[in-house]
Each structure stands twice: as C-alpha cells, then as structure tokens.
Amino acid sequence: MAYDKFTTLTSTAVPLPIENVDTDQIIPARFLKATTRDGFGDNLFRDWRYNSDNTPKEDFILNNPIYSGKILVGGMNFGSGSSREHAAWAVYDYGFRCVVSSFFADIFKNNCLNIGVLPVQISPEFSTEIFEAIYADPNTELEVNLEAQTITLLSSGTQESFDINGYKKGNMLNGFDDIDYLQNMKSEIETFTESRPF
C-alpha cells in the first residue's frame, strides 16, 4: 500500500516521556481482529486514553488539546514487546508520521519503516531538551529532514543526525512500500526475464 512521500516534516509534537512503551499499550491485543490498516488510530493507547466507560481520561496527553502535531516524542525503548504490525498501523492511522525516541525496539522500528512512519533515534540528552522545550511551549516545532537525515529543534537550533537503512530511506522518499518498490521496477524485471535463455 503506497503512502505519502516523506521528505521534510516540520510540525509541533506530542510528548509522551514514558519509558518501555510496549506494543500492547500502543494497540491492545483485543483490537487486532481487523486485517486492513484502517481504524486502528481510534484505539491507539486505548487503555491509557479511555476509562472503562469509554470516556476520555483527562490526564492522558492525547486528550490534551494543547498538544498536537504529526510527531510523537516517546521515552526510551519505545515499541518493545510483541512484534505486532498493528502498533505501527495505529500510530500511522492516528496521524503521526514520525516517532522520536532515544531507543526503539527493532521490530517496531522496521514495522514503522514499512508503512511510512519515520522512527528517529536521538541521544538521551537531545530527547530531554526536546521534552523541556515542548512543555515550555506546546507550539515548539521540530524539523525532520529525511534526505539530510537530520532532526532540528527549531526554537534552539539544536540538531542531530539519525541513521536509516538506505533501502527504506529511498522507499519513504518515494512513498513506496516493498510491493510498490518491485512494481516500480516492473519493466526492468521484464527486460531481464526476456534476456534469460530459459
């Protein structure tokens, strides 16, 4: 499934400074029955967002209208736990295009890259600076430049570089998933096939 190209994202951010956020909190297991990617955003952090009677919990960050944006800034070890793809689907479906953390669980990180969510790993020191800046001013913006592989806190100019697999970077810049990548090479594959003697 193709998604929007990711080049440079400038946005306010939602702070979630909780360490060891696992995939069962990102999207609880009881919501994994669907096989399409739509609708999971409604249940992102479901047990943290809502009471048992489905009323919003006022003290949870996603229910605070002061904070918004396409960037989620999480605590260390974001996306640990089970390997469910649905966690990345929920993040994307909610509207986040980038998750920032000082450490990601590998499987969650790769699941994000497969569907158009950019996981940006930064130093713990920069993470602290970003949280402090957002709490001081919820209108604080971050700029994430995928081509340059940089993330900048615009209020201070502090910038760090981040790593990303070259293949996944190319796919995100073009808005491709793995199947789109192969389909884009269809003519080359056909030419190669025709040149084979068998």
Automatic annotation (TrEMBL):
Pathway: Amino-acid biosynthesis; L-leucine biosynthesis; L-leucine from 3-methyl-2-oxobutanoate: step 2/4. It catalyses: (2R,3S)-3-isopropylmalate = (2S)-2-isopropylmalate. The keyword Amino-acid biosynthesis applies. Pfam families: Aconitase_C (PF00694). Keywords: Amino-acid biosynthesis, Branched-chain amino acid biosynthesis, Leucine biosynthesis, Lyase. It is an enzyme of class 4 (lyase). SUPFAM superfamilies: LeuD/IlvD-like. GO terms for molecular function: 3-isopropylmalate dehydratase activity. Transmembrane segments: none annotated. InterPro entries: 3-IsopropMal_deHydase_ssu (IPR004431), Aconitase/3IPM_dehydase_swvl (IPR015928), AconitaseA/IPMdHydase_ssu_swvl (IPR000573), IPMI_Swivel (IPR033940), LeuD (IPR050075). The keyword Oxidoreductase does not apply. CDD domains: IPMI_Swivel (cd01577). It comes from the Bacteria. Signal peptide: none annotated. Residues 5-124 form the Aconitase A/isopropylmalate dehydratase small subunit swivel domain. Catalyzes the isomerization between 2-isopropylmalate and 3-isopropylmalate, via the formation of 2-isopropylmaleate. NCBIfam families: leuD, PRK01641.1. Heterodimer of LeuC and LeuD. Belongs to the LeuD family. LeuD type 1 subfamily. This is 3-isopropylmalate dehydratase.
